[in-house]
Amino acid sequence: MDVKLLAVVTALMVLTYAPPSQAKPLSLIERCYCRSTINTLPKAYIKELRFLHTPNCQFQVIAKLKSNKEVCLNPDIRWLQQYLKNAINKTYPLAAQYLSKWA
């Protein structure tokens, strides 16, 4: 009787064992990089731009300054909108023509 009980308990332990997960906790996955943005920044201060778009966050623009500091830019800044439009036109000229018909 004790052997049967031990076998059942062992089988239940094997079936319910969950190995440790390699995934990050949800609180880290869903965080947006840009919590606040700045509206004015001269283009001359910028060394490079990065663009992030994730399902949980709005479109984010990270500017690395010449001082190696990173700041988040408001994606609605006029010169940034023009920069993105020019980049799309250069990279995807046919798509840009198609999209301009819909705008």
TrEMBL record:
**Domain Chemokine interleukin-8-like stretches:** 29-87
Q: Does the keyword Plastid apply?
A: no
Q: Which UniProt keywords apply?
A: Cytokine, Signal
One GO CC term, this protein: extracellular space
What Gene Ontology terms for biological process does this UniProt record contain?
defense response; immune response
Which family is it part of?
A: Belongs to the intercrine alpha (chemokine CxC) family.
Q: What's the protein here called?
A: Stromal cell-derived factor 1
Query: Is Signal given among the entry's keywords?
Result: yes
Q: Which Pfam families does the protein's record reference?
A: IL8
Signal peptide per UniProt: 1-23
Q: Which GO terms describe its molecular function?
A: chemokine activity
